[in-house]
Amino acid sequence: MSQPTFGTMGVDWEERVRFDRLREYRLGRISRLLEESELGALLCFDMANIRYVTATHIGTWAQDKLNRFCLLPRAELPIMWDFGSAARHHQLYNPWLDEGRSRAGISTMRGAMSPQSGRAEDVAEKIRAELAERDLLGAPVGIDAVEPAVFFALQRAGIQLVDGQQLLQEARLIKGPDEVTLLGTACSMVDAAYEELHRALRPGIRENECVALVNKVLYDLGSEHVEGVNAISGERCSPHPHVYTDRILRPGDPAYFDILHSFMGYRTCYYRTFAVGSASRALLDAYRRCRYYLDAAIELIRPGVTTAEVVAVWPRAEEFGFANEEDAFALQFGHGVGLSIWEKPIFSRLVSLDHPEEVREGMVFALETFWPASDGWSAARIEEQLVVTADGCEVITRFPAEDLVIAGNRVFTVGGELSGAREPQSNLNVTLDHERQLAIPRADDF
């Protein structure tokens, strides 16, 4: 087993996550790659990259604001400019940002501050001064995501900006032991959420109530952030809408869920499909086809295989009702998971066949498949997260999914318990005896 499962606390009597080692591993990887590159520095506004480089975090409310930033100069420690008093807090509690490397700084708040306030120019001057002090003004600076006003101000300040995302993605590609443990722990919390969801699913519950239940379970267990819960049921299953509603679940419904949350910053992307009370033949067949494509991909995973080899076992978009691979994007899909839910490597017939990437030991990614049912409205969706090991892989998502799970209270008639494999319309589950004028429950022939 590549990674243990621990509780969410640190203890003195068992070695669990070592956060000092985690910080050193992440900064060490990106610093080495920076020194091997042509870049003089990296400038980060993306919260996941900032956390990877500086091990700072001020809450997920700031995730999309682009107002915090850090600079990692070649062969030096990072400098962090933070949101107001957060900088002072980090001076007190983040000793790895010593010697004045935690400072206050703010950009334009996504353009909310007037251009005449000069905030974009202030950011550019802060960066220019640090580069000039280190004789790096002539070197290209890699950048990840930035407000347009700040981008232009940096250029006017004489800073040569280039794409830094590929270097940062390469650093985050291979997970250290503590990252793997945190990812496994995050998955174990979703295991628990699915257990509670499985118990709660019944006719009458709504998709939004399912989302609320999952949020409560995860936050009770110590989740840092529930990024999203997809809850899709009934006729909404095909095509996949990627958003939940207040739809009421009904007997025989398919219902699939994707749970995305983070523990200590490390994400999950984890689908499961259920049938409410019973499943039709069409849904059962779709589920088993969906599971086949997923397991056929997992079977190939080992160091040295390419993403092209993996996606080659998946069906073409035209085979399941789409005009092309862009129309069907992310239905047969794989993606790295770490401090964000979409990292390298990407598995998709849209890009991987012509631009393959090599699978390497230490990668953590999710593989997800989809198959529409022959009834035209139901569908199955399954996803597993896995760690690439020296000779294969280990799946770290554990809620049962090898066959379709029936949820909800079982129903009994005078003849006994109704089969879990049955059509949702009662008239389709009987044989008519016209001579005796009787409707006889049909034996299970699935």
Count of DSSP strands? 20
Q: Mind describing the biggest β-sheet?
A: 6 strands, mixed
State the CATH topology of the largest domain. Answer: Creatine Amidinohydrolase
CATH class of the largest domain, please?
Alpha Beta
Q: Tally the structural domains.
A: 3
Number of helices: 10
- Looking at CATH, the homologous superfamily of the largest domain is Creatinase/methionine aminopeptidase superfamily
Order of helices and strands: HEHEEHEHEHEHHHEEEEHHEEEEEEEEEE
Please state the structural category.
alpha+beta
Q: Whole-number average pLDDT?
A: 94
State the low-pLDDT regions, or none.
none
Give a written overview of the molecule.
This protein is α+β, with helices and mostly antiparallel strands. It has three domains: 19-173, 3-Layer(aba) Sandwich (Creatine Amidinohydrolase, Chain A, domain 1), CATH 3.40.350.10; 177-407, Alpha-Beta Complex (Creatine Amidinohydrolase); 412-441, no CATH class. 30% of the residues lie in helices and 22% in strands. It contains ten helices and 20 strands. The chain has helices at residues 19-36, 47-54, 85-93, 119-133, 148-156, 165-173, 177-200, 207-221, 281-300, 307-311, and strands spanning 41-44, 69-73, 79-82, 102-104, 141-143, 161-163, 225-233, 254-263, 266-267, 270-276, 333-336, 343-347, 364-372, 379-388, 393-395, 405-407, 412-413, 416-417, 430-433, 438-441. Helix 1 (19-36) packs across helix 6 and helix 4 (119-133) packs across helix 5 (148-156). It starts with 18 loop residues before the first helix and ends in a 5-residue tail after the last strand.
